[in-house]
Design goal:
Elements (H helix, E strand, L loop, with lengths): L11 H10 L27 E7 L4 E7 L12 H8 L5 H10 L11 E7 L4 E7 L12 H7 L41 E4 L8 E4 L20 E7 L4 E7 L12 H7 L12 E2 L2 E2 L14 E4 L8 E4 L29 E7 L4 E7 L12 H8 L32 E4 L8 E4 L19 E7 L4 E7 L40 E4 L8 E4 L24 E7 L4 E7 L12 H7 L33 E4 L8 E4 L26 E7 L4 E7 L12 H7 L35 E4 L8 E4 L3 H4 L17 E7 L4 E7 L12 H7 L28 E4 L8 E4 L18 E7 L4 E7 L12 H8 L21 E2 L4 E2 L5 E3 L10 E3 L19 E7 L4 E7 L12 H8 L33 E4 L8 E4 L18 E7 L4 E7 L12 H13 L12 E7 L4 E7 L12 H8 L5
Pfam families: Kunitz_BPTI, Lustrin_cystein
InterPro entries: Cuticle_assoc_divergent, Cys_repeat_1, Kunitz_BPTI, Kunitz_BPTI_sf, Lustrin_cystein, Prtase_inh_Kunz-CS
Organism: Brugia malayi
Amino acid sequence: TVHHHWSLPIDSYMLQITFQQYGFSRIPSKSTTKPCSLPQQIGNGPYRIPRWYYNSVRMRCELFYWSGCCANGNNFPSIHNCKRLCEGFSFPKLFTRFLLQDDLDQGHGKTLQARYYFNKYAKVCEQFDYRGIDGNRNNFESLQECQQQCPGLKTNPSLHDEKNLSLSPCSHGSSTPQIPCFGDSTCGVNQFCHFGQSQLTTVCCNRSPTGDRCHQLLNIGLGNAFLQRWHFNTNSKHCEPFIYRGLQGNENNFLNQNDCQMTCFVNPCAAGEPYQIQGNTMQCSPAKPSMCPNGYYCHIGAEPQTTVCCPNLVFQKYSFKFTGGNACEQQVDQGQGNYQLQRWYWNIASQRCMPFVYAGLKGTQNNFLNQEICDRTCYAFENPCLSGKPQQGVNNRPLCSSTYNNCAITHWCHIGAVPQTTVCCPGKGRAVCKLPLAFGSGDANLKRWYFDQNILNCIPFSYGGMHGNQNNFLTQQQSGNPEMDSNGRIKICSKSLNSCSSTFWCHIGAQLQTTLCCPDRGNFYLESTACQLPLAIGHGGANLQRWYFNNNIHKCVPFIYDGLHGNQNNFLTQQECEQTCPVFVNPCASGEAQMGRGERPQQCISHNQCANGYWCHVGAVSQTTVCCPGRVMNSAAQGYAICQQPVTAGMGNANLQRWYYDVNTRQCLSFTYHGTMGNENNFISKKACQLTCPAYVNVCPQGIPLLEISTNQPRLCAFGENSCGPKYWCHLGLVPSEYQCCPGTETNSSACKMPLSVGIGGAPASPVNRWYYDAAASTCKTFEYNGRKGNQNNFISEADCAATCTVFVNPCDRTVTLPLQTCSNSEACPSGTYCHYGSTSQTTICCPFEGNRCSQPMARGIGSGSLQRWYYNSMKGICEMFTYNGIHGNANNFLSKENCEIACRINPCPDGQPFSTSNSVYQVCVASTLYINGCPNGYWCNPGSNSFTTVCCPGAVNNPCNLPMVVGEGNEKLQRYYYDAMARVCRVFTYHGMKGNQNNFLSQTACQLRCRPLENPCIGQPATTTAGQILFCSAINKEVCPVNFWCHIGSTPETSVCCPGATNPCSVPLSPGSGNADLSRWYYSADDRECLPFQYNGIRGNQNNFLSQMECSRTCPEQLCLLSIDKGACSEHQTRYAFDRQQNQCISFEYTGCGGNLNNFRSLVDCISTCGQLGF
């Protein structure tokens, strides 16, 4: 057996027969002839095996079909083997020189194949359509092959390896991003699964606009891969292999031959083409096989498209002899394909019809749907009877054999040499044993036995095979002697007392003399039981009522026994027979099974083997796989009657996995069948159930979806593609399988008039948001769709809805009443409405609202607008700005802040309502930089940013200066002043416009006039704490003043503060200050070098200001003596004296005449009198 790397469409036993008969003929290994230079040799075998040979003219490997016999060395199982050995065998330089001279040549013929040639002018490889015949050497199957062979090529940078893929695997585009796939069912509508070299290129690609994949031209694609694939050749009507490059092929690209044949029309004929009429293949049918013209026969395939008129097979495929188209002389051929069809063929050797399994294609004419047709066509017999014609059954078949006897009472079973001469002959006799020896005629030479009446014993003889008589037995035992006892007498037996030995059986005759032990009890035929023995009426004329087990129909049947020469299949009562033998159990629930030939139950494998009104019941064994009555017709018009039958588990002990159609779920579900008493809603496989019954989920609100004829499944669709046709519309489900064509008017014309339908649940996905058209509002709205039984008013997106129905863009947040009322201001709108200001005149209309518009929340709306608007913030009590998108806002929407405040009556007061006039209008008050008035008693004027917020507020106090500073609320930034009671000054702050208090002044002057702040006793600003408060001091805590500040002691604590200035008081001149306090103080006179009294006025003095003479005398000398020695800034030379704090004594120094400091004495005595008493 020869093995190949692909699967041949021939069964294994056929391969064995073929290649044992036709061996491979190869060039001897020692031959010096190179295989690549040998010519192509197809051979003379019976097959079409795809092989490769090296075409030395074109200098490349090409595909051809080898016959299976008699090849030479130029015969390779794959293109890889051929290329590896032969390409490059010729001289490359010579090839290049010839190639450069060849221009494009498309050849001639009707086949168009995508090829590549080298454009010697552009120096690039380009694609062209090759017509299949002739041409020149500038012809390559792939872009890569062209690029490798041609010099000076401008390479195409787009072809990379798959890891760095820049060339899309799809020739007509794909989804973005690309979707991995495992088959066409995993891709979307109008896409197919492209099987590349790896998972990276196995993606969903867009289908070609050219339509049917089987009619697309061969496209080997682009890339570096070498993938064995199959395509359908529309010219040859065959699936043929090719090498795919891995990228940018088309749909006419199959992984194996079976997939190709299952998808595309394949020529089912074993030889030649089907008969055609005006270019169309002529189909026939099992009911009318004779409709084919002369020279053709009706090939019965698995489907209508393969049931066609094929040419007669006049040449026998295996024996190489002419049959003249006679089906019965042809050998059986299981054919090709994936089907398993129960068929019958005529066995020439056994001269009988036998069953076989047909694969569906390429078989011979010796192929019949059932045994009856086979018998009627092929069975022939020669009359072996001595006189008269034999009795014949249906289709001229015999009624008896060595194992059964269905002959009439007037006929006897003649056992010939072959089945054709084993027939029921007329003239059944009563005294068989008295008939003379009859050698008969013919050349069969069969060993038989006859009873010699003279010697009362059975004698063997040689029978010619035909024209004998009844005294003719197959074995000696068939006419043997009874058992004898020990005394040599015949042993008597009875039904109640069986005294026969193990090799005998008790024959119950008509008399006591014939009730005896006959030979071979239980072994009348080897490995047989009494129930398997044929009917034996016997001889003798006794006319006894007996029962026998009919092994064909598995029933106990009455018969008349003649009393002698019967067998064990002979029972006194029906009960005894049924207790002994396996009676046929009728598996049919609605009556008796159909009886076939020999009154046996008609066995079957499909309904077409049963008579009208019967159906094929498939049981656990062949005996219960019979035709049962009560067949129902099944069609869509009749409501699929089979599918509406209830599930029935049946009766029996079997546990068979079966499938039934559930009318409620419209699904094929599994169940356990017990083997008998079922109904037709019983399928061996789920696929068989789905092909018979509409096994799908009906998502349509009314009726059933449009079904595909080939699959009996709903036609799938997509919105806007018009793939359903007239009178159907596309239901958009939650999963791809529920995008079905439902009966009804098309979506475009009817959806907009239909009401909202949320449908019902049940889909294998959660409900989703969809859009529907609200005709009353003339707009598209969203809703949650449950998945099934909705109507046409159901859109995936708002855009789809708007594209289908006329949409009115309602700018209001509520439904409006048509016709619309336009407006320019709210006064133009009726009560209960307001003027909605949109971005266009069409959206500026009167919109309804309820309640207080000022209490509504801010609503930005929807749309693409960017409009500056104002709304009233009820939480803050102010109008604020926001950006409005253009539609679906609310009434709290104003063109300006003023409009907002007018409409919403802003309350700027911190507590209570503003004072209102008699007409309920807030009273506006006057607020100037000097005074605020105009309010009645108990009210105060809030100084807002405008007249709407400058109103009289309740809760006025007598002294606002004691109130805390309050910045208020709002969006304003107003400069105001408040009185700081702690610091006793008026300070600036920022007021937000509302909710403040009376300690709020428009100017500092107004604040000071009202609150009289502290008079500053310092020259400059006094020191303050970190909290901003004035730092006070006294005579006992002068140390609290920071550096560069000194403690000013005024007439009151309020004027005793830390003032800025140097800390040495003795060097500054006298300053009486201002005011009218008239305080007695002391100061240090630098000229007199002593402390003197003066009158201090109370404020704005300096540091040289002491409460007593003692304080002055203690402070100033000490201060001046501690000064450093300063020579001054002029050029004179005067001797002076100063206190040196380092030597702790008075010393002399040279003074320049000007400048210097107080540590400067004219004499040593003056220095010592002033500084000598210091205790340093």
